[in-house]
């Protein structure tokens, strides 16, 4: 029985680390946040913090997984108005630049098949494509999208636009990512 309690405490501590890391990185930025600072935020040493993760790469990957979990819950990504939820997440991203930086950096590094987060990003993109294309199918079935649109391509284009706009936004904060995605939606959803 003691092992079960220890396991539950370990899971709880890991969640505490990830939740604290979301705040610290959002506030300080990815490049200005050290593992030491993350450990300090939850009352651990660096070694103590890394005890809960197999590597620094896994720690950062799990921070992004936690961000997705929090955003999915906060913005109800599976609601009746999925495009509004998607735009809500994009608007929120402009409030957490450090997490956007972390995502951009780690997703680029994970392009290498040998990177520890490669499988995570392959799976993440597949899940988001499925979610977004499902939303597009619902819109098409409701008659709000042209029946001839290739929804798989449209889904990929929206994800590419969102990621590309994040990169541009990191370089020029005057870019309104959500406004651009909303305009793209307007172009796709418009039926002449």
From TrEMBL:
Q: Which residues form the signal peptide?
A: none
Q: Does the keyword Glycoprotein apply?
A: no
- One Pfam family assigned to this protein is TetR_N
For this UniProt record, give its keywords in alphabetical order, as a comma-separated list: DNA-binding, Transcription, Transcription regulation
**GO MF entries:** DNA binding
What is this protein identified as? Answer: TetR family transcriptional regulator
InterPro entries documented for this protein:
Homeodomain-like_sf, HTH_TetR, Tet_transcr_reg_TetR-rel_C_sf
Native organism: Agromyces badenianii
Stored PANTHER family = HTH-TYPE TRANSCRIPTIONAL REPRESSOR NEMR, TRANSCRIPTIONAL REGULATORY PROTEIN
């Amino acid at each position: 029985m003691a092992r079960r309690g220890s396991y539950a405490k370990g899971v709880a501590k890991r969640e505490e680390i990830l939740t604290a890391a979301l705040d610290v990185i959002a506030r300080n930025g990815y490049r200005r946040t050290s593992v030491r600072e993350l450990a300090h935020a939850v009352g651990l040493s660096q070694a103590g913090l890394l005890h809960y993760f197999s590597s620094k790469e896994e720690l950062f990957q799990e921070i992004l997984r936690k961000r997705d979990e929090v955003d999915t819950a906060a913005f109800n990504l599976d609601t009746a108005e999925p495009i509004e939820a998607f735009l809500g997440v994009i608007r929120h991203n402009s409030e957490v630049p450090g997490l956007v930086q972390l995502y951009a950096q780690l997703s680029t590094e994970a392009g290498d098949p040998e990177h520890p987060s490669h499988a995570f990003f392959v799976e993440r993109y597949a899940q988001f494509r499925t979610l977004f294309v499902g939303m597009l199918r619902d819109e098409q079935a409701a008659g709000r999208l042209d029946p001839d649109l290739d929804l798989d391509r449209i889904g990929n284009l929206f994800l590419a636009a969102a990621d590309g706009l994040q990169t541009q936004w990191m370089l020029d904060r005057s870019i309104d990512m959500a406004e651009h995605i909303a305009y793209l939606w307007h172009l796709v959803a418009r039926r002449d």
